Each structure stands twice: as C-alpha cells, then as structure tokens.
TrEMBL record:
Major place of residence: membrane
Name of the protein in its database record: Iron export ABC transporter permease subunit FetB
Membrane topology reported for the UniProt record: Multi-pass membrane protein
Entry annotated with the keyword Transmembrane helix: yes
PANTHER family the UniProt entry points to: PROTEIN ALUMINUM SENSITIVE 3, UPF0014 INNER MEMBRANE PROTEIN YBBM-RELATED
GO terms for cellular component: plasma membrane
Keyword Membrane found: yes
Transmembrane segments: 6-27, 39-61, 67-84, 96-117, 129-149, 196-214, 226-245
Similarity section: Belongs to the UPF0014 family.
Keywords: Membrane, Transmembrane, Transmembrane helix
Location relative to the cell: Membrane
C-alpha cells in the first residue's frame, strides 16, 4: 500500500500545523526574544514558496525540458547566493557575485558528475532527478557557506591588527589568512559531519522518509539516502572552501590593510 496516499494531508490539516508556530511565537514573546515577526514571516513564506514550487513542478514534470530544468537550478542557486549575501552584516565588499558564480560552477559540475557519471542514470537531466537532488545540494550547502562566512568575517574583524602586523613583517596574504580560512571551513562542515555520525541512529533523513512513505523498499531508500548524504557532505566542503577562499583574496587593499 502506498502510505503517502494513506497519509494525504488536507488543506485544513496543513493549516493546523501553524499552531506549533503560533505557540513558538508566543513563547518568544513571553521570553522577549524578539523572534515573533521572523517566525511568522518565515512560516508564511514556507507555505507560499513551497506550494508555488509544487504547482510549478507539476507543470515541469509533465512537460520535461532540460533547458527548463537548468533554468530552475540556476534560479535556486541565485536565491541561495542572495540569502547568504544578505545574511552577512556589513561585509567589506559586495558578496553576491562571488557566491553566485562559485556556487553555480561548482554545484552544477557536482550535480552532473554525481548523476551522470557515478549514478549513471539514463535520464539524469530529467527534472524529477536533476532539480530535486540539485535542490538538496544547494539547500544544505547554503547553510554551510553562510556559517563559514559568518565565522570568517568574525575572525577577520577580531584579528585584524594581528593580520596587518604579519603582513608588515613580510608574510604573504595567503599564509596570513590560512588559519582564518581553515577555521571557517571547519565551522561550515561541522553540521554535515555531525549528520553523518547521527544518521540512522538519531534520525531518518528527509529523502529516505519520503521514499518510505511513498511505498519504496526501505533498503533501497537507505541506499539513495547514503548517496545523498555523501553528495551533500562533498558539496558543503566544496562550497565552503571555494567561497571562503575567493572572499579571502579580496579582503585586503593594495596597502595590505583589511577592508573593514
């Protein structure tokens, strides 16, 4: 039996889950956390954005086109880069272009290699495969890149004098930034590494859950989830390393001073 159909969620049931958000917002209000507005707006955006994507994917899956699949994937990366760049407070220079170009090239290559070379799917470019798996890559990596950049700029600001002094004594910019870049990458990768340690013991990941609810054999669902977890691990490492490395190159002016 297809359990996904048996667990069909009505519109009223879907709205009822908003009570959890309202309860959380109430707790935030009582504790004076100031998160009520963000919670409510974020929840509303979740409803609107996911339902809109659902309607769009119905059409895209019905009339598959590789060009449209690629356009949707680029659209996802565009918004991921925008969200990351907006999250960083008072950056010393615009970040969007660096993040977008780096993520676009690296994640597009990773998606194609993973699906076309390793998985050897005959229709790896089909939207059901390319968009869904690509979306998981971008979504998980987005958080990793954001955490890495947060850590990098915080350390850069706190260690500004030390860095400039090292440059005055003749150290190269790349050598002076090594520790900051390394710590930032480790911070971005930590959640993915923790997930690898806890998956199957502490939680059942989203893709495996969805496949099991859809009636898929649990063992086959586990194999697909292993593939996804490993791809996500690589993508978070790749995204954090490339973005932070590119950003680090632009943090100093010609006089060897930090751009803050």
């Amino acid at each position: 039996m297809n359990l996904l159909l048996a667990l069909h969620i009505s519109n009223l049931q879907l709205l009822s889950f908003s009570l959890f958000v309202l309860l959380t917002a109430f707790v935030s209000y009582r504790l004076k956390l100031g998160l009520e507005k963000s919670l409510l707006i974020g929840s509303l955006r979740t409803y609107v954005q996911l339902l809109a994507m659902g309607f769009a994917l119905v059409y895209i899956f019905r009339y598959p086109n590789p060009v449209i699949s690629l356009a949707v994937y680029i659209w996802m990366i565009f918004w991921a880069a925008r969200i990351i760049s907006n999250r960083i407070e008072n950056p010393p220079f615009p970040l969007f272009k660096i993040i977008f170009v780096t993520m676009l090239v690296s994640y597009l290559a990773l998606n194609i290699i993973s699906l076309g070379v390793f998985l050897r799917a005959d229709s790896w470019y089909a939207p059901e495969i390319f968009i869904t798996i690509g979306g998981m890559i971008v979504g998980n990596s987005m958080n990793a890149v954001a955490v890495s950049l947060d850590r990098f700029f915080a350390d850069l600001k706190n260690r500004r004098e030390e860095l400039e002094q090292n440059l005055l004594f003749g150290m190269k910019i790349k050598d002076a930034m090594n520790d900051l870049v390394r710590d930032a990458i480790k911070a971005g990768m930590s959640p993915s590494i923790n997930n690898l340690a806890g998956v199957g013991l502490v939680f059942i990941p989203g893709m495996m859950t969805g496949q099991i609810l859809g009636g898929e054999d649990p063992l086959n669902a586990a194999k697909y989830q292993i593939m996804i977890m490993l791809i996500i691990c690589v993508s978070t490492a790749l995204g954090s390393m490339l973005v932070v490395s590119q950003v680090a190159k632009k943090c100093f002016n010609k006089r060897g001073q930090v751009k803050f």
